[in-house]
Write a structure and sequence with these properties.
47 helices, single chain, 3-stranded antiparallel β-sheet, alpha/beta, 5-stranded parallel β-sheet
C-alpha cells in the first residue's frame, strides 16, 4: 500500500493510495496541521487548545481535543497503517516517515543543499533547492483559520523565500546570469521589500551585459523605498551601484570546497573604524578600562553551573555519554550527545554532572555553558550565544562580527586547536544548536532539550524517563536519610509510585519530609492520596508537577507564598537576593533570609555565589509557570505593576551607581524621574566594587529588564535603564545589545508620548550608529534628538548631541564645523555642570588643534582634561587623554617623555584587561623608538603589537603592525616577506589603499 502524503506547503491536503483524503473542516484540520508541523515530535494538548480557541477556551476544551484526535486516528488508520497518532505526555505525536510530509522534506532538502554548497558542489545544491521549492503549492496552510498557526506558516513562507534567494545566489556563482533576469523581475514584483532579491536582479543584469538596466533597477529601488518607507537603500545596494559606476564589479566566483573563514578577520566596517588613516593619532582611542575579567588571548572558560551533590547515577548511561563525548580511537568528528525528556526528568542535572566528571581529564581547555531558554517565549538566538562564547574565548566585543555566519566561523576557528566541552541547556530545536557546533574533533557538545533533536548529525541520544524504583528510593534516601526509608519501606515504595517517580516531584516531596522530621512517610502518602484530582493528573505529564507543587506551596507561610508568586515576574536567568526585598518592599539588611524558606522546600534552587558571598537563586521552569498561575489568581494588575516597578527601580539604582563609579558621578548621561528602590548599602558597595565586572555579570538581567519595563508600559524606567547601560555597551563593544534595548525602549516612550525619553534614546542611538561608521544615520538621529532637547531647554541632551555631531564632522575632515560644534557642546556641558563632558570635548577637540599645528592650545586643553579626570577618578578618560598627550609630545620632539607617557597608559590598559588598548600602545611605543633612532627596541614593540592584535583576531591592526615592523627589516628580506604577504592580503580585503600600496612597494623592492 502506498503511504499517505501530507501537504502543508499550500492548502492542507492528504493524499492516499486512491487519491485525496477528505478532511473534516475546522478543528480536525487545525490539529492535524499542528501535528504535521511537528511530525514525530510531541505537541502538547495545551498548545492544541490555544490553536483552536486562542484566549478563551471552554472548560471542555481538552475533551474536545481528545475527540478530534480520536476521529483523526480513525481516519488515518483506515487509509494507511504506517501513520499513527499516539498519546505521549503532555500531548500527542503523529508518527510517519518525515519524507511523507512536504514541510519536513523541504527542510531536509534545504539543509542538504547548504551542506553541498559548503563542499563546493553547487550544481547538485541548486538541483536540491529547486526540488525543495517545487514542493510548494501556495502559501503555507492557506485557507486554515488559526491565528497561532498563521505565525508558523509565515515563518515557513519566509524560509521558502530564503531558499529561493540562496538558489539564485548559487546560480549567479555558476554564471547563469541571463536565465535569472526574468525570474528575478517577477520575484521583485511579488516581494518588493526584499532588498536581497533587488540586489540579485541588479547583479544579474550587470553580469548579463545590461549595465544601463542594472543602474535603472537600482534607481527604481531607491525611488520605491523613499516613497513607500522614507528609507535609503541598504549599504550593500549602494555599494553595488558604486561598483557598477566604477566598473569594478567582478563576476562572482564559486567558493572553493574548503573556504578560508572570513570571520577570523575584523569585519570590514570595523576595520574602517580602526584604520581610516595611517597616522598614529587617527587610530581609535583606548576604550575605558574593562573589568579585570576582560577577555584575554589565553582565556580558558569554566562556565559550568554547580553539580548536584545527591545525584543518583546510572552507570551505563554515564559510560555511554563519556564514550560519545571523549571519543573512540580514530574519531574524525566533534563528539555530540543529546539528553532529552519530559520536564522534571533531570536533563540539566545529568548534563552538568557529566560535564564536571569529564572537565579536567577530557576537556582541559575549558567548558562553555549556555541556557538556550528553549522553553521560554524568548529562546536565545545563535548569534547571541556565539557572541557570549566568543567573549569567553578571548575575543573583545568590538571585534565580534554581526552576522551569524561570520560569528560561527570565528567560533570554529577559535576552537580548532582546543579540547573544549560545550554544554547547551534547554534547546528548542536543531536549528538553534547547529550553528553552535565546533568543527574540531577535539571538542564535544552536550545538548539538553524537550524535543528529541533527531536531526543533530551523529549525536548519541539519551532520552530520560522517570526513575526506576530502586533509583527513586536511593534518591529519597539521600535526601531524608536511609534510616527513615528503611524504617517505612512499604510507605517509601508507595510514595515514589505516588509521585510517578519523577525526579523533581520526588525532590520536592522529600524536601518537605526532610524539613519536618516528625512527619512519617505514610502520612505524606496519605496527604497525596487525598488529592484525588491531583493524583489523576500526577500520571499525565505536566499536571504531575502541579499536584506536587501545590502540596509544597500550601505548606509555605503566607509571606513565603506571596514572595514565590512575585518572584515569578522576574525574567532574569538567576535571581539576586535583593529582589526579594524589592518585591516585598522589605528593607532588611540580609534579604537572602526571605529566599531561604523557598530554598528549603526546593521551590527555588541556589544557582551560585556572588562576589559579595551572597547567593543567587533560580526557578525550575515548571515551578515558575506554577508560580505565575498563582500570581494571576492572587494579585491584581495594579499590585503586579507596583511590584514590577520596585524590582525595575532596584536594577535602575544599581546601574546608576555603577555608572557613577566608572565616571566619577552622574556625568554624560540623562536620567528620568521614575522612583528607585535601593538595595542595602552594604550590598551595593560590595557588589559594585568593580562596577564594570558587575555590569558584565548582570548583562542578561539588565537587558531583559529594559524590555520587560517597555512591554509593561513603565516607559520612564525603560529608557533610563537602557541609556545607563551604554556604560557597558560602549566599553565592551556590545553594539547588538545596545540597539536591541534602545529600540524596545524607543517603542515604549513613543507610545507614551514621552518626548524627553524619546530624545534621550535617539541621541544614544546616534552614538551607536556613529560607532558603526553609519554616519548619515547617526547624523539624522542626533539632529532629531537635538531639536527636541532645544525645545525642552535640556542642556545635557544638547551637549551630548553636539559632541557626537562634532565627532562625525571631525571624522569627515570638516574641522571648521567640528570646532564650532565642540564650542557649543562645551558651553552646554558647562550649563549642565558636567565636568566630565567638558573634559571629553577638550580631549576630542585637542586632536584637531594638533592637526592644525596649534600645539600650545592642544596641550592646554589636554592638561585641563587630565585635571578633571583625576579629580573625579575617571580612569578611562585619563587613559584616552594621556595617549593624546604622548602623541603630542612625540610631535614636539620630546620622545623620552612620550615613551614614559605611553608606558603609563600601557600599564593602565594591562591592569584593566584592555587588550585592544594594549595593542595600540605597543604600536605607539614602537613609533616612538623609531623616531629616537633605536630600531631594536622598536622592532620588539612592533613584534609584540602583531602578537597582541592577531591574538584577539584583530587582523587589520596586526597588518599595520606587520608593515611597521617590515620597514625596519631591510637587511632581512626573508623575514620581511613573511610579514608583508599576509598584510597585503588583509589590506586588499579591507580596501586600505595607502597601506596596500606601500606594502606592495616594499615587496617589489626585495624586502
Amino acid at each position: 500500500m502506498s503511504p499517505l502524503v501530507f501537504r502543508v506547503l499550500g492548502p492542507l491536503q492528504v493524499h492516499g493510495p486512491v487519491g485525496p483524503l477528505r478532511l473534516p473542516p475546522g478543528r480536525q484540520e487545525v490539529i492535524l496541521a499542528a501535528l504535521l508541523l511537528e511530525v514525530n515530535r510531541v505537541v502538547s494538548t495545551n498548545h492544541l487548545v490555544d490553536l483552536i480557541w486562542e484566549d478563551n477556551p471552554p472548560e471542555t476544551a481538552r475533551t474536545q481535543v481528545q475527540i478530534c484526535v480520536s476521529r483523526l486516528r480513525k481516519l488515518l488508520a483506515g487509509a494507511d497503517g504506517e501513520v499513527s497518532i499516539t498519546t505521549r505526555p503532555p500531548g500527542y505525536v503523529l508518527h510517519t516517515d518525515a519524507g511523507n510530509v512536504d514541510a519536513a522534506l523541504f527542510t531536509t532538502l534545504v539543509l542538504r543543499a547548504r551542506r553541498l554548497r559548503e563542499r563546493g558542489e553547487l550544481h547538485e545544491a541548486v538541483r536540491l533547492l529547486r526540488d525543495a521549492v517545487t514542493l510548494w503549492q501556495g502559501d503555507c496552510l492557506s485557507g486554515l483559520d488559526s491565528g497561532p498557526l498563521a505565525n508558523k506558516a509565515r515563518q515557513l513562507n519566509e524560509e521558502r523565500l530564503t531558499a529561493v534567494e540562496l538558489r539564485i545566489r548559487l546560480e549567479l556563482e555558476l554564471g547563469r546570469y541571463d536565465g535569472l533576469v526574468g525570474e528575478l523581475q517577477r520575484l521583485v514584483h511579488e516581494h518588493p521589500l526584499r532588498e536581497k532579491l533587488r540586489g540579485q536582479l541588479i547583479q544579474a543584469l550587470y553580469w548579463s551585459g545590461r549595465q544601463a538596466e542594472a543602474l535603472e533597477a537600482f534607481r527604481t529601488t531607491r525611488r520605491f523605498l523613499a516613497e513607500e518607507l522614507g528609507l535609503e537603500p541598504s549599504r550593500e545596494l549602494r555599494e553595488l551601484e558604486s561598483a557598477i559606476l566604477a566598473g569594478r564589479l567582478p563576476a562572482p566566483a564559486a567558493p572553493t570546497p574548503v573556504p578560508v573563514p572570513a570571520s577570523v578577520r575584523v569585519p570590514a566596517d570595523k576595520a574602517e573604524e580602526r584604520t581610516a588613516a595611517p597616522e598614529a593619532e587617527e587610530e581609535p582611542e583606548p576604550t575605558a578600562p574593562p573589568a579585570p575579567e576582560s577577555v584575554r588571548q589565553d582565556a580558558v572558560p569554566h562556565q559550568l553551573p554547580a553539580a548536584v551533590a545527591d545525584f543518583v547515577s546510572d552507570a551505563g548511561q554515564l559510560a555511554a555519554l563519556e564514550e560519545a563525548l571523549t571519543g573512540r580511537p580514530g574519531r574524525t568528528t566533534v563528539g555530540l550527545a543529546a539528553i532529552t525528556g519530559k520536564p522534571g526528568t533531570g536533563k540539566s542535572t545529568l548534563a552538568v554532572h557529566v560535564a564536571h566528571m569529564l572537565s579536567e581529564t577530557g576537556f582541559p581547555d575549558g567548558q562553555l555553558y549556555c541556557d538556550l531558554r528553549g522553553t521560554t517565549g524568548t529562546p536565545a538566538t545563535p548569534e547571541e550565544v556565539l557572541g557570549r562564547f566568543l567573549r569567553a574565548l578571548g575575543i573583545p566585543g568590538q571585534l565580534i562580527p554581526e552576522s551569524l555566519d561570520e560569528r560561527a566561523e570565528m567560533y570554529r576557528t577559535r576552537l580548532a586547536s582546543r579540547r573544549v566541552l560545550v554544554v547547551l541547556d534547554d534547546a528548542c530545536g536543531e536549528g538553534q544548536v547547529l550553528p553552535l557546533l565546533p568543527g574540531s574533533r577535539g571538542c564535544a557538545v552536550l545538548v539538553t532539550g524537550r524535543a528529541r533533536l533527531t536531526a543533530l548529525p551523529g549525536a548519541h541520544r539519551v532520552e530520560l524517563d522517570v526513575l526506576a524504583e530502586d533509583r527513586a528510593l536511593e534518591l529519597l534516601s539521600r535526601i531524608i536519610g536511609r534510616e527513615r526509608v528503611a524504617g517505612e519501606a512499604a510507605a517509601a515504595e508507595a510514595l515514589v509510585r505516588t509521585v510517578g517517580r519523577l525526579p523533581l516531584a520526588l525532590r520536592i516531596v522529600a524536601a518537605r519530609l526532610a524539613a519536618r522530621p516528625h512527619w512519617t512517610l505514610a502520612s505524606m502518602v496519605q496527604r497525596l492520596a487525598n488529592e484525588r484530582h491531583r493524583l489523576d493528573e500526577l500520571t499525565h505529564g505536566e499536571m504531575t508537577m502541579r499536584a506536587s507543587l501545590s502540596l509544597t506551596y500550601e505548606g509555605l507561610a503566607p509571606d513565603d507564598r506571596r514572595l514565590l508568586r512575585l518572584l515569578s515576574m522576574a525574567q532574569a536567568p538567576t535571581l539576586p537576593s535583593w529582589l526579594a526585598g524589592a518585591l516585598l518592599d522589605d528593607r532588611r539588611p540580609f534579604p537572602s533570609d526571605l529566599m531561604e524558606p523557598l530554598v528549603d522546600v526546593q521551590m527555588l534552587d541556589v544557582a551560585g555565589v556572588e562576589r559579595t558571598g551572597g547567593f543567587r537563586y533560580r526557578f525550575h521552569e515548571i515551578i515558575r509557570v506554577y508560580a505565575r498561575e498563582q500570581l494571576a489568581a492572587h494579585h491584581t494588575p495594579e499590585a503586579r505593576q507596583e511590584a514590577l516597578a520596585r524590582m525595575a527601580g532596584g536594577w535602575m539604582h544599581l546601574a546608576q551607581q555603577a555608572h557613577r563609579k566608572v565616571y566619577g558621578g552622574d556625568f554624560t548621561v540623562l536620567h528620568g524621574d521614575a522612583p528607585r528602590w535601593e538595595p542595602p548599602d552594604s550590598y551595593t558597595d560590595e557588589v559594585l566594587a568593580d562596577p564594570l565586572a558587575w555590569l558584565d555579570a548582570e548583562q542578561a538581567s539588565l537587558c531583559g529588564m529594559v524590555e520587560h519595563t517597555a512591554d509593561a508600559g513603565l516607559h520612564d524606567l525603560s529608557w533610563d535603564l537602557a541609556t545607563s547601560l551604554v556604560t557597558l555597551f560602549e566599553v565592551r563593544g556590545h553594539y547588538d545589545l545596545w540597539e536591541q534595548t534602545h529600540l524596545s525602549a524607543l517603542a515604549a516612550v513613543r507610545k507614551a508620548g514621552n518626548l524627553r525619553g524619546t530624545a534621550a534614546i535617539r541621541a544614544s542611538l546616534g552614538s551607536l550608529y556613529m560607532s558603526r561608521n553609519q554616519f548619515d544615520t547617526a547624523r539624522q538621529s542626533l539632529t532629531s534628538a537635538l531639536d527636541v532637547f532645544q525645545a525642552l531647554d535640556e542642556p545635557m541632551g544638547e551637549a551630548l548631541c553636539r559632541r557626537d555631531m562634532a565627532l562625525i564632522a571631525r571624522t569627515s575632515g570638516d574641522d571648521f564645523s567640528a570646532l564650532e560644534l565642540y564650542r557649543r557642546s562645551l558651553a552646554d556641558f558647562d550649563r549642565a555642570g558636567d565636568v566630565v563632558g567638558r573634559a571629553i570635548v577638550l580631549t576630542q577637540s585637542a586632536h584637531i588643534r594638533m592637526r592644525q599645528g596649534e600645539t600650545a592650545a592642544a596641550q592646554s586643553q589636554l592638561d585641563e582634561a587630565l585635571d578633571i579626570y583625576e579629580g573625579v577618578g575617571y580612569t578611562g578618560g585619563r587613559a584616552r587623554t594621556l595617549r593624546r598627550v604622548g602623541q603630542l609630545l612625540l610631535e614636539q620632539g620630546r620622545s623620552d617623555l612620550a615613551v614614559l607617557t605611553f608606558t603609563e597608559v600601557l600599564e593602565l590598559c594591562r591592569d584593566s584587561g584592555d587588550v585592544i588598548g594594549e595593542g595600540h600602545l605597543l604600536r605607539d611605543l614602537g613609533h616612538a623608538f623609531v623616531i629616537m633612532g633605536r630600531p631594536d627596541r622598536a622592532r620588539d614593540f612592533f613584534d609584540r603589537a602583531v602578537t597582541a592584535r592577531e591574538g584577539v583576531m584583530d587582523f587589520s591592526g596586526g597588518a599595520l603592525a606587520r608593515l611597521d615592523l617590515a620597514r625596519l627589516l631591510d637587511a632581512e628580506p626573508g623575514r620581511s616577506r613573511e610579514l608583508l604577504v599576509p598584510a597585503v592580503e588583509v589590506f586588499r580585503e579591507r580596501r586600505m589603499g595607502r597601506e596596500l600600496a606601500e606594502a606592495e612597494r616594499l615587496l617589489a623592492t626585495g624586502y
